[in-house]
Amino acid sequence: MINQDQFDNLLVEAENEINNGADAAVLYHKYLGRNGKFSTMIKQITTLKTDERKVVGEKAKIIKNRLNYLLQIKTSSNQPSIDLTLPADLTAHGHQHPIETSIARLYQISERLGFVAAQSPEIENEDNNFEFLQIAKDHPARDMQDTFWTVDGRVLRTHTTAFQQNLIKNNHPPFAFVQGGKIYRCEAEDATHLSEFHQFDGFAVAKNLTFADLRGVLFQLIQDFFLRPVELRFRPSFFPFVEPGAEIDMKCFSCTGRGCRSCGYKGWLELLGCGITDQEIIASAGLDPKEYHGLAFGLGVERFAMLYYGVEDIREFTRNDPRFLEQLV
Q: Quick one: 73 and 117 in the same domain?
């Protein structure tokens, strides 16, 4: 019948083997494995009387803890030591996220076109985010942009276009700025929409800027990003802060305009919105809208990345699955 002495003897036996240099993995299997000596002994405790079962059970618990400790020490002692005098291994163990890579490429292309990188906070005041851009409180555009507010009346920016007011008031034309960053919307998430995503905005003011200038900038930007000739079309569209405004479509790479699953069988892919800056915005900065004109554009970085990398579901960019991300390096 099992007793305390048998557990003590088991510990002595194991200690002797450890001291004689036996392999830690072999010892663990021999003593603490499913069919090991300790496991076999512990099953016999159920045959004891209640009082004896409690005493022997406590002893078994102590012996098991001691065996685990000794085997852990044995395992760690077998690990190779680290020579701290050797040079550090600075090999990269990751890579830039494809969205950050896309933003960096957009900055590089824009800078070649004469734009300067700008920064603005993700938490904006209501005036910068809405009022200055002609989006009044009762404007329908607020429905999907009336999102996350702080207790002091500020909002998580709903577009990177919010950077325009500070730039136009603190810089004298001619100037041209771009900015990329995260924005927040009231969106139902699906394969092509996210509630938190990234935008890249461009904004320029100078004398006698025209829609032809805007068209030339965007054609070059899009073609350089996708590294291939592109065919674009401009469709009239309404944005409160530009007049006239337009949306740009690009002929589908997959079907060259015939219609396929990638383009929803339309032959064209919607890319971005753009336009000539509203005259009231120019005037609000103390500039003569008859002399100075502005151009503006804003694009969804995830949409550009989806087309560039051939990704069908935008949510893949936020799932942080290494198996997916490593394919885009």
A: no
Which CATH number do you get for residue 254?
A: 3.30.930.10
- Whether residue 62 is found in the same domain as residue 134: no
Sign of CA dihedral 39, 41, 46, 49: negative
Provide long-range contacts, Cβ within 8 A and 24+ apart, for 130-133: 130/155, 132/164, 132/165, 132/281, 132/284, 133/161, 133/162, 133/164, 133/165, 133/240, 133/241, 133/281
Nearest to 205 by CA among 127, 281, 129, 124: 281
**Overall number of domains in the chain:** 2
Rounded distance between C-alpha atoms, residue 174 and residue 172, angstroms = 6
Query: Does 85 have pLDDT greater than 80?
Result: no
Instruction: In whole angstroms, give the CA distance from residue 158 to residue 131.
Output: 13
The answer on 123 and 241 residing in a single domain is yes
Q: Which domain holds residue 54?
A: 4-77
More confident residue, 129 or 291: 291
Residue 8 DSSP one-character state: H
Do both 192 and 240 map to the same domain? yes
Cα–Cα nearest to 150, from 119, 182, 121: 121
**Residue 14 in this model has a pLDDT that exceeds 90:** no
| 235 beta partners | 247
Identify whether residues 168 and 257 lie together within a single domain: yes
Tokens 């592109």 correspond to what residue? 230
Do residues 170 and 275 both lie within one domain? yes
Query: What confidence tens digit (pLDDT) does each residue in 228-256 have?
Result: 888 999 999 988 889 999 999 999 887 88
CB 217 within 8 A of CB 202: yes
Residue-level pLDDT at 91: 65
How many residues does the structure list for the chain?
Answer: 329
Give the Cα-Cα-Cα angle 254, 255, 256 (nearest 5 degrees). 100
User: With bands split at pLDDT 50, 70 and 90, how would you rate the model's confidence at 144?
Assistant: low
**Could you tell me the pTM of the whole model?**
0.68
Q: Give residue-wise pLDDT tens across range 153-193.
A: 888 888 888 888 888 888 889 999 999 999 888 887 888 88
